[in-house]
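ARCHIVE CARD
Drawer: 12
Card no.: 0347
Subject: one protein chain, sequence and derived structure
Cross-reference: see card 0346
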Amino acid sequence: MVAITGVKVPVIVVTPYGVGIVGAKAPHIAVPLNANADLLAKTAMEAVRAVAKASGHPLPAKVALAPPPPASALGVVATPVPGGGSSRGWLPFGVFLAVFGVVALIFEVRGRLGRRRRRRLDPNSKNLMVTEGQ
């Protein structure tokens, strides 16, 4: 039996190899052969119901669903954007275009400078300056 903050509670462990229950008496619960996750979950639910019934606290046949937690509990705070929609969806595209534009400009400038250097150093070019006496 496990004590959590002074309360003794049973521990139920469900694996593909069997069900282990500590701290409570319950009937034998078998796990189906080749059990997938859904069958293991159903076996765990059966084990919880069997332990509760054996300890004198049977669970109702139908249990109402718990309400979903509020958005603030999940760390999500909805803040209205003045003026309607948000422009956050365009931000990644704008950053991509800006980076792409800068890289294209650098590539173009380096290409033009390289062509100028090659023209100046090309011995077959018609624009050579000939100096005498050297």
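Annotation on reverse: The radius of gyration is 37 Å. Helices lie at 37-54, 91-121.
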